[in-house]
Amino acid sequence: MAGNYLMIPKKAISGTNLEQAKSHNRRVVIEAIRINGALSRAAIARLTALSSQTISNIVEELEAAGLLQPEATLKGARGQPAVPYSINPDGGYSVGLQLDHQMAVGVVTDLSGTVRARIERDVDRPTPTQAMPLLAAISSDLIATSRLNRTRLLGIGMAMPGPFGVEGMTSVGPTALPGWQDFPVAEELERLTGIAVIVENDATAAAVGERLYGVARKLDSFVYLFIGTGLGAGLFLDGHLYKGSRHNAGEIGHIIVRPGGLPCDCGKRGCLERYVSLRAAYDRLDLPDPDHASPDLLEELLASGDSRFEAWLAEAVEPLRQAIDVLEMALDPETVVLGGFMPLAVIEALAGRLEPLHLSVSSTSARTTPRVVVGAAGKDTSVLGAAALPIFSETNPQFDVLQKPVG
Amino acid sequence: MAGNYLMIPKKAISGTNLEQAKSHNRRVVIEAIRINGALSRAAIARLTALSSQTISNIVEELEAAGLLQPEATLKGARGQPAVPYSINPDGGYSVGLQLDHQMAVGVVTDLSGTVRARIERDVDRPTPTQAMPLLAAISSDLIATSRLNRTRLLGIGMAMPGPFGVEGMTSVGPTALPGWQDFPVAEELERLTGIAVIVENDATAAAVGERLYGVARKLDSFVYLFIGTGLGAGLFLDGHLYKGSRHNAGEIGHIIVRPGGLPCDCGKRGCLERYVSLRAAYDRLDLPDPDHASPDLLEELLASGDSRFEAWLAEAVEPLRQAIDVLEMALDPETVVLGGFMPLAVIEALAGRLEPLHLSVSSTSARTTPRVVVGAAGKDTSVLGAAALPIFSETNPQFDVLQKPVG
DNA sequence: AGTAACTAAATCAACTTGATTTTCTAAAGC
DNA sequence: GCTTTAGAAAATCAAGTTGATTTAGTTACT
Fold this sequence. Notes:
alpha/beta; disordered N terminus; 5-stranded mixed sheet; Nucleotidyltransferase, domain 5; 12 helices; DNA-binding; Arc Repressor Mutant, subunit A
């Protein structure tokens, strides 16, 4: 497995000790505040089932470390006034990178997800040799221009289209980035920048972004349906990011929704992303140069009521509905979040035509959340999600953190 | 949410402490032995990353509690001879119940999964009022006849067809059990028997069975595709059972594989279980009374080379292939396990015709496990899985155990 | 002699407990 | 209207508990 695309450590179920417990408890405190907003020590103690003394110690440490900051004392109630703590945005920074067919984008965000710097560069279906130095340059430029405290840099998160390492799928067709099969992106970028790198597909990154800062903040299980050049899903299940045994969970662009339908470069027929994706729209519009078309075009066509675009919309709705049906049935998420590179207006147009959704396990009157919502991050969802990756990885309470590293 | 079908506690991410850690570490020791077979203290220490002293203490406790038993000392190597420990089958017992359209089955198993007693009763699409006293009677008969140490009874696990609590799906159609919509099975059975009850759909139960004792013992992520009266999937992801936000994950019987295809009682057309399920086979064979047909019939027809049955087989393969494709794409599991009430010979006939499988993220040359395997438990997979549920819940290391119960 | 498994006692880190202090609101008394 | 007193909630202090780790052996084999 050496030189693999992404480092996938073989997980072993290992024991735990006080050290791991402390690390977990610190994450729990941060997560409680992230989800609920500013909280007093006493409130955190109630939420986390830890003793108030323990919370007091942890909050003190986190404040000293610059991760938490006190807010104005709350008066008006009985008893000693509570001092709420919120997350200090300047407690940490993260670099997010996004690479796709036509653009490389980089951002720096703080702990609150606010963008502190942004760089955009045009590319044209770049190979690793072309892209890696560019990505490294974007990173260092971002860090230099934003003049942040380097010791507070949590890492680099990078988003790019999947799937990873699948023969006959990673390198074939107009929705895939050619030449990246088995290229060790994370290792190479780490070598070039000297900073820890996390690589995920764009849908997974977007899901993390929505979970930290967007519409999925309070959700335990949701699916992010990412409509980009192709189409993929990011899976957040039971409070954990699910990436799959080979890091390719959610690559549903090539599920068959129309047996015997449109031929796909993967060799199958009727694949979902032949109907619902930027590429599908470009193809339907018979553009002269679909490889270099821009999503903005679709927004214009939508606004102008272009009949061919309307036809694509009408044809895309049922496959999309089917995709949502499959995801709801297979995963029973609280909600499906829609987003991607597809312009927000187009996504909203699609979402507006989805009803009536298919009958599924999501069809229950006891629902509290809508079955489908549109993501909050807009077309930058992928880079913002990428930047959220290191923050998520450093602050999210997860099973891994509670277990001793083995080996 | 009171009176809900299953108790679904609202999970809060809570803190941990030494007490939770100890509980987790004990589970880790048991799991290590379950997966790898008998292990010496030193070997467990290496596997779990815990100190040998900690393991020594835990093993001592578990032996005293009757959960572990020493094996013959291993000689022949250098150093002090190691004493391997294995799981004491008599360390605990579990009752498994299974209810479907035509049968109620109950078993008692020990910790090794061996069946110690078995009871079978005919039923005919039972309502809760009919079934609950019967299930309680089966339980008490099993406990009485097997004369096990009641203090070592871990609980009752029950498997039944899903989905649960979905209007227009739980109670409609020939593959659903009518009248169970919103009936609080677990609570009611607990009240009748005085024993803790865990209820899951049959696919989930089967998945747990295969994970504890079958072909999925060493797998971290797999999908159990359960072909019964209908069709469903049990999801074991990243070492955890994934049940979905409303307990209905894996209910893929009603995903659309043939748009505009055979009409289904759920209102959609072309649902998967109209093509791949016992009921689909019965329907294709034009049986006079499909509600009371037996899976055994299919086995006979297969053996005799019946042409109509062969036609069903041929027609079922592509939808099944598509279902596997969807599951592989969405979840990227290590393996898809096939099983259910469908006779083993028929499942093997289906499995044999699956190749070539669709191109998916599972198509990589770096695989160590086959893409599809047939489950080890045979047609009792559902009851055995049901019996495995309490054992799993008591001994599997999971995130929940490490967190303090909140509220 | 060398090596690996195991044991016992002491140590340590982090959470818990219960008492105490702080700081406020609400209500009563004058 | 002002003062006093009771009550409540938040936060802290200090001692106690728990369970993993460390250290220093001992045992039983090649």
